[in-house]
Design a protein that fits this description.
This protein has 335 residues and is an alpha/beta fold. It has helices spanning 4-9, 26-34, 50-63, 93-100, 102-119, 149-166, 196-201, 204-212, 237-247, 270-280, 291-306, 312-332; strands at residues 15-17, 39-42, 70-73, 75-77, 80-81, 123-124, 169-175, 190-192, 217-220, 223-225, 254-255, 285-287. It is globular.
Amino acid sequence: MHTLNDLLDNIGQLFIVGFPGKEPPAPFLDFIAEDQIGGVVLFEENCPTHLTARENIDRVKAYLRATAPFIAVDQEGGRISRLRGAPAEFRAPTEYGRGGGIEHFREDYSRSAVYMESLGINLNLAPVADIYLNERNTCLEGRCFADTPEKVAQYVVAAVEVSRASGLLSCLKHFPGLGAASTDPHEAVAIVDYDRFIWQQREKIPFDAGVKAGADLLMTTHISARKLGDQIVTGSCEVISELVRTELEFDGPIITDDLTMHGAAVLGSVGERAVAALNAGHDLLLFGSDYEAAMTAYDSLVAACRHGDVSAKRLKDALDRVGGLKFKLGRSVAH
């Protein structure tokens, strides 16, 4: 039987955190080592060359030797490419959907995925399972494979299959579907007006296909879908339990979008955002390059657990899912 203190000793496993600049600063390395953070996310500024990326990955792994960290990137293709240049970079999803073709996508993404795995990356925060439904949606410009659910689903399945064959974990995003919104959640809460029936006929289809293909994680975003639940999805037990766990029958870890985004601010301080997201049913909490915000949120989450604002069961369930995925990852990349 795990005591609360046992669980709190491992709470850092629920965080994936980035850092600013060309190399990880000393306070960031101290934080991830001291609290045994679950993983690190790399951005383009951390990977000015592929050699720098490899050196940064090796440095992070040395500080997190005991926990087999997630080393994550957003390598979607096109403008959302953290690693530039061949063989890591490939074309934007929209270009493949418009005529590049699914076999060309498989070939290009396979080349990239195998190379990323060789650098030490083990989690690609992709594919984008959103449908491009709103031309005012600048956030998703170039990032969606198509404007119909069936076509997006085909590419999502291909991406998940290629990731698995290459030893990378895959992550479907941005649940429950950001394509109909016009607001970028980096700037403010994204708003959609679809109801559950429309969602089942449209947004659900690519996510469902990705789950059935064996996607490892699912990422939500800071989206208000009033006809699905009162709270934004990042803080919505209703959306997580009913749509992800029941409708999609997905039992893997659910990760938040970056909790430092302006769209998450309606949930309160960074600490309050972390508590709300965990209580809603998320298992991993993503923080971009503002690692100081992650440090604050870590302390707030520990305090909330001690005060009973997060149950021991919720904490254990999240840790079990993350631990299960790390076990699976360890087996899949064993050489």
